[in-house]
Hints:
Radius of gyration of chain A: 21 Å
Largest sheet of chain A: 7 strands, mixed
Largest sheet of chain B: 5 strands, antiparallel
Strand content of chain A: 15-25%
Strand order of the largest sheet of chain A: 8-7-9-10-11-15-16
Order of helices and strands of chain B: HHHHEEEEEHHHHHHHHHHEEHHHHHHH
Radius of gyration of chain B: 31 Å
Strand content of chain B: 5-15%
Low-confidence stretches of chain A: 1-28
Structural class of chain A: alpha/beta
Number of helices of chain B: 21
Helix content of chain A: 25-40%
Distance between the termini of chain A: 31 Å
Mean pLDDT of chain A: 87
Largest interface: A-B, 62 and 67 residues
Number of strands of chain A: 20
Oligomer: heterodimer
Amino acid sequence: MTILKNTARSIGFAALVAGMMTTTLANAADTIKVGILHSLSGTMAISETTLKDAMLMLIEEQNKKGGLLGQQLEAVVVDPASDWPLFAEKARELLDVHKVAAVFGNWTSVSRKSVLPVFAELNGILFYPVQYEGEESQRNVFYTGAAPNQQAIPAVDYLLANEEVERWVLAGTDYVYPRTTNKILEAYLKSKGVADEDIMINYTPFGHSDWQTIVSDIKAFGSEGKKTAVVSTINGDANVPFYKELGNQGISATDIPVVAFSVGEEELAGLDTEPLVGHLAAWNYFQSVDTEENATFIETWKAFTGDENRVTNDPMEAHYIGFNMWVKAVEKAGTTDVDTVIDEIVGVAVPNLSGGYSAMMPNHHITKPVLIGEIQADGQFEIVERTNGLVAGDAWSDYLPDSAKLISDWRKPLSCGNFNVETSTCGGKGS
Amino acid sequence: MQHLIRFLIALLIVPLLLTSVSAQTDPRSLINAMAVGNLKARAAQIEALAATGDAKAVPALQALSDGALYFRKSDKQVFIAQKSGKNFDLIDPLTAENIGTFPKGSVSKVKVNNSLRRLIRSVIGTLTLLSPDPQIRIAAAQTIFKTGDPESLEALDRALVQEKAPNVRSAMELARASVILKSDSTDADKIAAITLIQKGDGREGLPLLNEFAAQSDGAVAAAANKAIGEIEKTIALLDIGQTVWYGISLGSVLLLAAIGLAVTFGVMGVINMAHGEMVMLGAYTTYVVQEIIRTGYPGLFDYSLALALPLAFLVSGSCGFVMERTIIRFLYGRPLETLLATWGVSLILQQTIRTIFGSTNKEVGNPTWMSGAYELGGLTLTANRLWIVVFALFVFAALFVVLKKTGFGLQMRAVTQNRKMASSMGIRTPWVDALTFALGSGIAGIAGVALSQIANVSPNLGQNYIIDSFMVVVFGGVGNLWGTLIGALTLGVANKFLEPFAGAVLAKILILVFIILFIQKRPRGLFALKGRAVEA
Lengths: 431, 536
């Protein structure tokens, strides 16, 4: 059904969009172009439009500071319309036609997978700002969102330690991110001694809205006398009816807490959060982080959007970090040349918004703190736990037997994203 | 008695406390202690406060659990805070006296997390067992039943001695049974407790019994397992009822989404791809109505849906009217062009809404009478679903009456059955076409009001329902209202029976496969129209 809808959507939007959506925002001759590849229409517009705005803000701020290498930055915005193949076309357009120095974009894993060959072929740079399932490391891509060990694993650790959870419901939307994350989590939980019958895995279609059966199953699963928690990788729109049903069936956070990896401030904006108080989310950033950098960021954001009620979220911070890293690497290299920047950016550290520095690792992932927050009645999160120090993103999970033996290091001389330490060869899985 | 004396003493010393700092056992300084320390220290602070046995500590604990307990940064005094504009009104937690308004920056929240909330729930249970309000006493007993905190046994026994109300008594006895299972009482006592729990409240008691059975052995474990078996037998029966209910509920949502389409597509034969957007317009109308009520007349919030219904009908109906007059009337008899044109309209409407309201979800609140759940003989019926079932049936009945009993309905049927004849009898057929289309769209609009209660109000709302709507109408039989009703309910119930075995994803696929096969066999759906109308 999704396919049908998507095809339908793509035909219409492609027609509408093709001519008019390629907007260039400044037209000076001597500018450095930065591509923004986020859906502005279709299902993902709900999440991605915000990121486009965040990028425009960051570029504007940088230009106020005098631009980069003495030149102004110019944003090139394209609309891939939540249509995965169109992402590849639009990426090609950005690199080939507009000759952008770097691209910031994508949300869903499937859209990222669809642009990977384009970036490899045309040798571009992509900054990907969303938490994802890992199991990937590409020379041309920088992953500024969380890998599973920077979000899912610490969240489960928190539940194990603080809520003494013994039974686990892994509920997700049926696509690659939840499936891979749940595979990693299942392996991790079993390594912690959780029995098979204490893990329930459940997948639902995109945009699922009738949660009655599943919530009552969770309720029954939780009535075995062992503390139960739900680890939710439910994506996008399906969250609202899910939380509503939990509230209506009287499951409160003190009975069965839900920890979510895709629910942030933006998603809660469409929801009456009163019945959800105490449910959890794991991110690397919350709007409620109490630091000076964050206060400035929120203020700039509200001024930029002209809306007092706009919220900030984790992928926005990821773009903030990624953009500043790119700027710093370009300054260090003195050029926007792709190969030079890819070499220079490893090791670059810039301030993040939660009061520390994030550094680019040789595997093209970054170091971040992990925060666990509880939903509050005002739609914000209260931070109840944060990791000691920073966690380095791990491209290949240590809990999947196939991946545990892979490492990624893009520095010379190794220059490999999937080096097998057992056979000492580059290549194999994920190449 | 002891408790009473302590209570009186507390009453006497509270006024003194406000001026003097005294020993660590009075509630005020215990509450103030919560201004310092981390989450782990707070558990001890809560327990210390509970150990006073003083019911006056309850408001402070409740506020802490609700996240409304703040401390003043200047002197580390702890207060209950109420938002007033951008500032906070600080309220003394013991005397409930308002001590004035303070800016947001001068106070800081006392942090709390889930495990602390659980602790608070259990200590409040013990502290409020003697409350004068029977509802609070029942709530207290139910909390103890869930937590089974052995330390509340004494308080329970004390409360049971003086308790008169039978329903409170039985709640308390259940709570006592739960506590006994967790304490080191004799086996006989425990077996009695097991029987009591089994008889009392099966489903709620199951976690307790499971936990108990896992930890004990011998005769008590056998008794517990037997009770678990009995309860599970009852639950298995109830589950069938529950599944049927979920099916009806899903069916009613399908019915609501499809019923407008049954008019525009079923009766008029227009393939209206913008049908989902009419539903979306209805949902956004509800949002706008609620926003106006929220800012202007908060007291009317519970009536917001009643106000939104006629407005949504008008908004979507007039939108449908305009659509018919400007686009569709030129395309009658050309289904492919109609499909493309209406689909274009649907895209335009979506993007318009996205431009006006933004692409993020909008919050549409549930009125109080649509929140929570009803218990019916062990079945849980959530209020919003129940009302949607009632509403869907009501809309169906109303539409049925309009079509069969009114002059307009008669004209409508006449036009669809034989346009030329109707026209020659003096019926203004173009006018009837426009009004029929407006009626179908308007009904989609009021469906949007109901769906805004369970779905996301976003520009994509309509797309999630359009395919389901067509599925129902085609399955039920084009042009037949009864078919739409039976079709929606059948698909809903079938889906819900498949879901536990096949999972939500596969269940949906199976239903689609079933419909494809069914349409092969019966191309005109469940209830095919017979006679001349078919050929027309």
